[in-house]
Specification:
about 45% helix, Aspartate Aminotransferase, domain 2, about 400 residues, pyridoxal phosphate binding, 7-stranded mixed β-sheet, Aspartate Aminotransferase, domain 1, alpha/beta, PyrdxlP-dep_Trfase, 12 strands, 14 helices, single chain, 3-stranded antiparallel β-sheet, binds pyridoxal-5'-phosphate
Length: about 400
């Protein structure tokens, strides 16, 4: 007798989607690099800086103090207080540790938020392009996304009328990402305020992913919490991966209204059962004593951004707007290739430089490629030299 077949959940199947063509370029680049080819990886947004040493020593000291045991599901009080203090400093609304839940990274924080808010089939409105990591979260929870194009001609500004028009009776949540990945756009305070009020009236949650909040070049970041008049429906997600070069430490958090904090704590209890104590101690220290190294890294990203944008705009056929924030430059390839995907494939094949095709983030950026700032200027210089050679050869061949 044959055994009854075993099954897996609908969620597991939803996460089984086809691997995106977009990452094929990066995968090919990694394959060629490990085979010994001279490859420059400009794909990922993982800071190239080491985690600042003082943070590392705090973690070590905490481990020596035996801070290696279970911790509360909602997060250690010391870290939640550090987060609340930061929030209170940057917003007219006071924030307390009771408004904060800690998660192992912003990704897990977002997964927990959407798991608490949405059922399969619910609609979530999201600007296009969006951070590619949202796809897994949305697939896992089973939500239907309603993309709203950003205004590419206005350096990827949020189209408020289109956002409002996309919100219907089926909308459970809206998520915005400011500063944005991939475009580095910052949503102005007035728009955040307006969107918060509009969504509140309609019983819709508004989530803001602010993981690039400390990497801004033009003006200081204004958070959704600082902008909104009422915080009833407002949820903010942030973390230390980018600003403090701590991507591998896995620390993120949610600041949410009291009605949601209990659910998020239950969710954290059921799924992670508390983040490591010594990492939370180091994270609390990192947030309280970060002035000099966060600024240093930000200044270096700014130099790289200025360098890349200047080099790109001096080349024939390609162009880039100056991003206001974040860790990426978007290069427009519409004049030299049929798509960003085709361009990225050609660039890797002919020069060994690997970038991410813009289609991975949405339709709006189909003719763009994303270039990371997480490489030092000599590496970026080499990559730009190779790109320039490729473009001039292509142009000469075209006559
Ligand atoms: C917009 C955005 N949100 C969230 C994340 C994930 O952050 P974490 O490392 O804290 O999970 C990233 C990482 O690239 C990101 O770009």
């Amino acid at each position: 007798m044959s055994a009854k077949p075993l099954s897996v959940s609908a969620m597991a199947h939803r996460l089984d989607g086809e691997a995106s063509e977009v990452w094929a370029v990066h995968d090919k680049a990694l394959e060629r690099k490990s085979a010994g080819d001279d490859i420059i990886l400009l794909c990922v947004g993982d800071p190239d800086f080491p985690t600042p040493e003082p943070i590392f020593y705090q973690a070590l000291a905490a481990m020596k103090r035996d801070r290696t045991h279970y911790s509360p599901a909602e997060g250690e009080l010391g870290l939640r207080e550090a987060i609340a203090d930061l929030e209170s400093k940057t917003s007219p609304h006071p924030c307390s540790a009771d408004d904060v839940v800690v998660f192992p990274g912003a990704t897990n924080a977002l997964f927990s938020v959407f798991s608490c808010l949405c059922n399969p089939g619910d609609e979530v409105v999201v600007p296009d392009p969006m951070y590619v990591g949202y796809c897994g979260v949305f697939d896992a929870v089973g939500v239907k996304t309603v993309p709203v194009p950003l205004l590419a001609a206005q350096n990827f500004a949020l189209d408020m009328d289109a956002m409002k028009a996309a919100i219907t009776d089926k909308t459970v949540a809206v998520i915005v990402n400011t500063p944005g990945n991939p475009c580095g756009n910052m949503i102005p305070q007035e728009q955040l305020r307006e969107l918060a009020a509009y969504t509140r009236e309609r019983g819709v949650w508004l989530i803001s992913d602010e993981v690039y909040s400390m990497i801004t070049f033009k003006q200081r970041h204004r958070s959704l919490r600082a902008s909104a008049e009422s915080l009833d429906n407002v949820i903010m997600v942030d973390g230390l991966s980018k600003s403090h070069a701590m991507s591998g430490w896995r620390i993120g958090w949610v600041v949410a209204p009291p009605a949601l904090v209990g659910h998020l704590t239950n969710m954290a209890g059921a799924s992670i059962f508390g983040c490591p104590q010594f990492i939370q101690d180091a994270a609390a220290f990192a947030l309280r004593y970060d002035d000099y190294y966060v600024a240093q890294m930000r200044d270096e990203y700014q130099k790289r951004r200025d360098f890349l944008v200047q080099r790109i705009n001096a080349m024939p056929g390609v162009s880039a707007d100056m991003p206001d924030a974040g860790m990426f430059v978007m290069m427009n390839t519409a004049k030299v290739a049929t798509s960003g995907q085709a361009f990225a494939e050609q660039l890797l094949a002919q020069t060994g430089v690997s970038v991410v095709p813009g289609a991975g983030f949405g339709e709006v950026t189909e003719h763009y490629v994303r270039i990371t700032l997480a490489q030092p200027i000599p590496v970026l210089t080499d990559a730009m030299d190779r790109l320039e050679t490729m473009l001039s050869v292509t142009q000469a061949a075209a006559g």
